[in-house]
User: Fold this.
Amino acid sequence: MARYIVRRVLSAIPVLLFISFMIYGILLIAPGGPEARFAQNPKITAAQVEAFRKRWGLDQAMPVQYCRWLGVCNPDNTGLAVFISDNGVPNFLPAAIGGGDNGILHGDLGFSLRDGRPVTVVIGERILPTLILAAVAWAIWLTIAILAGMYAAVHRYGLFDSVLTVFSYIGFSLPTFWLGIMLLAVFASGLKVLPAGGMWSTRDVPIFGTPDYWAFASAQPWKAATDLGTHLILPVFTLVVVSVAGDSRFVRAAMLDSLSQDYVRTARAKGVSERMVTMKHAFRNALLPIVTNVGLEVPFLFTGAIVTETVFSWPGMGRLSIEATNSFDYPVLMGVLLIAALLTVFANLLADILYAVVDPRITYG
Amino acid sequence: MAERRGTGAGGGTPVTPAEIEDLPDELDYEVQLESLNQWQLAWRRFKKHRLAVIGSTIFFTMVAIGLIGPILWPYDPTSITRPDQIVYAGRPPSWTTGDWNPLLVMGETGRLQRDVFQLVINGARLSLMIAFVATTISVVIGTIWGGVAGYFGGRLDTVMMRFVDAVLSLPLLFVILVASKFLGSGSWVTVALIFGLLGWAGLSRLVRSQFLSLREEAFVDAARAVGVSDSRIIFRHILPNSLSPIIVSATLAVAGVIVAEAFVSYLGFGVDPSQPTWGNVLSNSLEFITQGNWWWPFFPGMAIVLTVLGINFMGDGLRDALDPRSKL
Assistant:
């Protein structure tokens, strides 16, 4: 078991390295770049641009730049000594034991090209809004999907099952952003009962995440909560409709599978009540694939629903990545991409390990 | 002796051999033997799948609209319906206001006063074309990549599949956004190319798993024993046997590309905004939503929903029809 986990973790490292290389490569050849903003400024001479490129190491070859960005190379050294930190130990080691302090391995994601703040700060302030939206939607759709999927499986081919089937087909086919647009058209601009996007009422609530906001929230907690709540309704509804479609089918299939197992028949033959058979014997076993599936949804909680956040102008990570792409803010975009890739690989890992832990039948070769 | 059971609707009671002997003679009739190949059998199963028939009807209607609609409909997508009148906010569909004007069934957009129906049919042409081209490219790449990895196995397989892992871990949308910025968005060919070149990874996994199991079959050994070349074994012996999952996932991929194209266009990274793809029509309509122009995003969106729904039904039907074990 321990060997399996160690091997699985080790096999994730080359994948992560490769992803980081691809992200770096793709964004290096993309248009724009750190010095692109000087192109429009007549007061900046070519010599100054050259000095800027030299200062930030942009004149180096691509492998060297990548190595520095990764944090394996030390930008202060040359020759073979690039791999050695200022303290004389390999540069990729943590700074606490004498390694370098540059590059993503040391948590240095660089600076935003838009406002010059560290990328970690820019991303950091988007995490909470994303978590709020994603977690609320996730909790609701998971509850609905499990209940609906179970009910449909127990009463297979019943009225509810057919309705759920039709609903999930439609839910699958609905483009998320179109659903969002139509909801906005009806509830925000037509009926005018809900806000048209955003996370807070700009008129009477301070900007979310600032000290002002927290002061306001502690002074008028009810008002802050209802304000956030009304802004949450439409995006959460959009996410729930689209996601319940897929997940309820998944729960239904898992539940049907475990209801047809021999142990369920045995339990029924013993005279266990139908309720107990469903809840205890079948559902507990159906949980296995469901847990795995839920594990794979974890990255979404942090990287956010790009589509929903964009349509409803929710200030989260998904929207940040679109904004960064639009303004050629590559350090921020790379940071978001990297976090997303890391979480995806981690979630895959977690799902694999969870599955192996929960299901005793699995052997690790 | 094994007990035989009667089939058919009222069947289910055991029929003993003695009873068969007693059956009246008039039940003897000549049986016309008809030999059907796999595809004919699959077609027969597909026709019995009600949802699949409905779905493919919707889908092929959309394709037909995209093909001949723009020729038949009098307005061309770049013309302004009535340049003499400036009706800034657009006009709602004629049936909602009471006056029945068949040329205005889906209303008129704001600003440029375009006919929404005309945008929908021209959008069908562009959006479906992008979807077909992109799917073809990704199916070809995915099949070859997965086929080679699965057939040869070993170290080559490991390296190729780690590459697929990496491609799948990259958030596809971002890569598309950056790629379309880099390649310069605008023409629909570029957009189709980008989707095609980035969308093959999932399919290659599927093809690989098929090839992994099929290459152990006796007919592959036999082919190898008589000296058939590797490429011929891959494409002529194994590939035809793994076609059905490929067809199903290609069908569903068309739906995926339609939605993705609409979203990428909506974000402004897709086809040039003056070209009427469904996504562009939707994204152009956004600024007019606050003026109550609901018909502008509604109809192109419904076109997407219907097409995707039709494809999904069709894909499900194909999955059942192409499975020789299915009891349809």
In short: The mean pLDDT of chain A is 82. DSSP finds 14 helices and no strands in chain A.
